[in-house]
Amino acid sequence: MIGIVLAGGQSLRFGRDKATCQLPGQKYSNVLLAVNKLSACEQIIVCANRANQGKIKSQLGSGITIVCDLAEYANHGPLAAIATATSLRTGDVDYQMLPVDYPNLTPATVNRIAAQPNTVAATVRHAHYTIAHFRCSHRQVVNWLAHGDWRLRHFIIDCCHCQPLLFPDSHEFINLNYDQGEHIP
């Protein structure tokens, strides 16, 4: 299984880069937290953007593949990241995807998703499409995008045939959209 960390968002509502941010009480930056939780993965690909790529590389060091969106998919959100990550492998591959903006996800939750192929994390209130375990190939992603559908939900459900894996509503599934205070440099 290959890990995909979604770290290339613009963080407009947050006001600064979410990926490289270290929140009060956290031991590591959000991107490093996500990488560390993907322990079931044999390789991890961090999908960054041009602005945060250097800082992410300095925070993670060697051994992690850091990529920016392929030119033809640039600035198209999570599906651009998936297209870029899948371009590094041939054939069908299992991927586990995590975004940097769920810093409260526990390793137990991430491992439960890793153990369940073709699933997307869900609570009673929401499906969390960026937290998923799916199998696909780069060709499959490219064919999907050729139809112009950039909605991650459609890709995860209709193309990868993922089913909801239910979790209780908890602080784990609070998306980090707004900066809630002071940060640790």
Structure commentary:
By secondary structure, this protein is α/β, with parallel strands linked by helices. The longest helix has 9 residues, at 78-86. Helix 3 packs antiparallel against helix 5. The chain contains 6 helices and 7 strands, in the order βαβαβαβαββααβ. It has helices at residues 30-37, 53-60, 78-86, 107-114, 138-145, 152-159, and strands at 2-6, 43-48, 65-68, 93-99, 119-122, 127-136, 163-166. Strand 5 and strand 6 form a beta hairpin. The protein has a 7-stranded mixed beta sheet, sandwiched between helices.
Protein structure class = alpha/beta
Number of helices: 6
Count of individual beta strands: 7
Radius of gyration: 15 Å
Looking at how many chains there are and whether they match, the oligomeric state comes to single chain
> What do the pLDDT scores average to?
88
Could you spell the SSE succession in H and E letters?
A: EHEHEHEHEEHHE
Biggest sheet layout: 7 strands, mixed
From the N-terminal CA to the C-terminal CA, the straight-line distance is 33 Å
Q: Which strand-content bin applies to the residues? A: 15-25%
Which geometry do the CA atoms define?
globular
Q: pLDDT under 50 segments (min length 5)?
A: 178-185
Kindly report the spatial arrangement of strands forming the biggest sheet.
Answer: 3-2-1-4-6-5-7
Report the helical percentage: 25-40%
